[in-house]
Design a protein that fits this description.
The chain is an alpha/beta fold and 492 residues long. It has 4 domains: 134 residues, Rossmann fold, CATH 3.40.50; 76 residues; 161 residues, Rossmann fold (3-Layer(aba) Sandwich), CATH 3.40.50.300; 75 residues, Helicase, Ruva Protein, domain 3 (Orthogonal Bundle), CATH 1.10.8.60. The chain starts with a helix and ends with a strand. It is built from 22 helices and 15 strands. The strands form 3 sheets. Strands 9-11-12-13-10-14-15 form a 7-stranded mixed β-sheet, with helices on both faces. Strands 3-2-4-5-1-6 form a 6-stranded mixed β-sheet, with helices on one face. A two-stranded parallel sheet has the order 7-8. Bound molecules: adenosine-5'-triphosphate and magnesium ion. The site of magnesium ion has 4 residues, from helix 11.
Length: 492
Amino acid sequence: MSEVKDLATLIRAGTGLIVIETPEETRAVETFRHVFTQVMRPLWRWSLTDGLKRLDMDDDGAEVPPDATATLMAIKQHPERGVYLLLDFHGQLRYAMTLRLLREIVERQGSAAHTLVLISPKVELPPDLAALHTRFSLRLPDAAALAKMVREEAFAYSREHQGKRVEVDAAAMKAIVRNLAGLSLADARGIVRQLIFRDGAICQADLPQLAKLKFELLNRDGVLHFEYDTAQFADVAGMARLKDWVAKRRAVFLGDNPPPGLDPPKGVLLLGVQGSGKSLAAKALAGGFGVPLVRLDFGSMYNKFHGETERNLRESLKSAESLQPCVLWIDEIEKGLATSTSDDGVSKRVLGYLLTWMAERKAKVFLVATANAVHELPPELLRKGRFDEIFFVDLPSAPVRAEIFRIHLGKRKARVEAFDLDALAAASEGFSGAEIEQAVVGALYAAHADGGALDPEHVLAEIRNTRPLSVLMAEQVQGLREWARSRTVPAD
Ligand SMILES: Nc1ncnc2c1ncn2[C@@H]1O[C@H](COP(=O)(O)OP(=O)(O)OP(=O)(O)O)[C@@H](O)[C@H]1O
Ligand SMILES: [Mg+2]
């Protein structure tokens, strides 16, 4: 048990303050009973309800009131160095007296070389203590322990349902155990219980639910959003090259052992004109790989948690990794990385962190970033090798426009056969996909107002009344194309 050894080493090295964040308090305390056999120092446990109790022998009679100050005072004065497990103590750190005493003990100001161990699901230390502590993570359960727990929960279900057996699909069981990796036993158990009690079975249908529950658990206060509606490539007209690229890489991305010489795909950057379907393509990528999609909201990462941007990015990326395989989508990446000078270098550091993560990540997290203001993108991001490929999503060609009309008319239950798609495509030269969709929607309203069914004339009238962005902003679009020519690969 290496965690026992590691903790023993920390204690022998004279570590004053160890912080263990875990929902598994009982297991943490049990671990220290093993640590005791190695370090042979008095082991104490404190909680607000029980006060201070000695664990390695019967209470030695030192009656200390349970409040935090009295406890720390007693610890400070105890001549023999000991190991003190303080459960849920972080709530006490609001008080100046507690904080001061804790600090004096940890810095050995007039006290023996004790080791204090804070154990809680979450411990946030005030800045003056932050420099004095060592964090320690309890080992997470391995596949065997997780599988055992799933079996226990299946038995528990049977017991509570007059012996009704839980139907177990072996492949799903394996996938579930694999997907629970990275969670504490208690968290994993909570999820498995929900999965089993839902339908009395362990089956493939549990996997999406598992992904969602796990994600919610890991991203309690994060800036990642689980996107429930991914798209399929069938919903996306054009982008043949991008689709082909993904199809060729799907097996390697999802497989466990990449063939020799092939690196698993890591991510793409989609640049292009507004409304050309970049966001849609990002969703379809997740659908194409058949994995969950999470979106990182760069904007709120900056705004909501002022001063905590980097920590947030770190935690978000960790949550995404825990969900692997998945697609991580950063929409409008330029908004978060604009190299402005006004933010004390935060965006520079965020960029640095992101680039390092992109280079080093081992998890099956496929990154899709989308952007349209290419001039605001930091050049580091565009350098060769960062993304596997940078795709340029241009305005749709005539055949693609016809296909977009077909998709959107079909979605809205129009009789597609009644429409001359080529004529619509010809009339909508310069339209983006979004503008085509808007024309269809507008036509539907017009038809509704006429009290009749949608006919081609409604759509053509909408097209005539639309001045597409590519006309209003012709220079910008042209500039973007020229910029893209030498730097990107066309998506279509
Ligand atoms: N190639 C396409 N095939 C089908 N629908 C499309 C296509 N391009 C755009 N659309 C439609 O237009 C909508 C808007 O497109 P989307 O939001 O993906 O564009 P975008 O490139 O992300 O734009 P922005 O730069 O404004 O974020 C899509 O939800 C979809 O309905
Ligand atoms: Mg978009």
